[in-house]
Design goal:
The protein is mainly alpha-helical. It has one domain: Helix Hairpins (Orthogonal Bundle). Helix content is 84%, strand content 8%. It has helices at 2-55, 75-130; strands at 62-66, 69-73. A two-stranded antiparallel sheet has the order 1-2. One of its GO terms (molecular function) is protein-folding chaperone binding. This is Prefoldin 6 isoform 1. It holds the Pfam family Prefoldin_2. Keywords: Chaperone. Belongs to the prefoldin subunit beta family.
Length: 131
């Protein structure tokens, strides 16, 4: 009888640990979504800047805000900087997508493991009720 209650306690402890792991994964997924949203907004802003830069004549004055000061910048340099930024943000978004997919797969397997432990607890309790 005591080995039965010990086994049940072990299963409940295992269930609690898996639930905590699942909770951590869900927090990581939410954090990932927030970061992805931020990068998506930045990507849109930079693409808009690039479109504006493409509309300018080659002899147009371009200024970059550095702290509280506007500093004159070469159009080609500004264009290259914006393109590099877009490239970087796009790469980060791809990395975040891969990370998110991995986290969601882990979340799915944790849920499956939790269901299995819950079923074992239920069958254990059902067996105990019959005895």
């Amino acid at each position: 009888m005591s080995s039965s209650s010990t086994a049940l306690r072990e299963l409940q402890r295992d269930l609690e640990n898996k639930a905590n792991d699942l909770s951590k994964l869900q927090k990581d997924i939410a954090k990932n979504h927030q970061v992805k949203k931020k990068y998506t907004i930045q990507l849109g802003e930079n693409e808009l800047v690039l479109k504006e830069l493409d509309l300018l004549n080659e002899d147009a004055n371009v200024y970059k805000l550095i702290g509280p000061v506007l500093v004159k910048q070469d159009l080609a340099e500004a264009n290259a900087n914006v393109r590099k930024r877009i490239e970087y943000i796009s790469a980060e978004l791809k990395r975040l997508d891969a990370s998110l997919q991995d986290l969601e797969e882990k979340q799915y397997s944790k849920r499956e493991a939790i269901l299995k432990v819950q079923q074992r607890i239920q069958s254990h309790q059902a067996g105990k009720a019959k005895a």
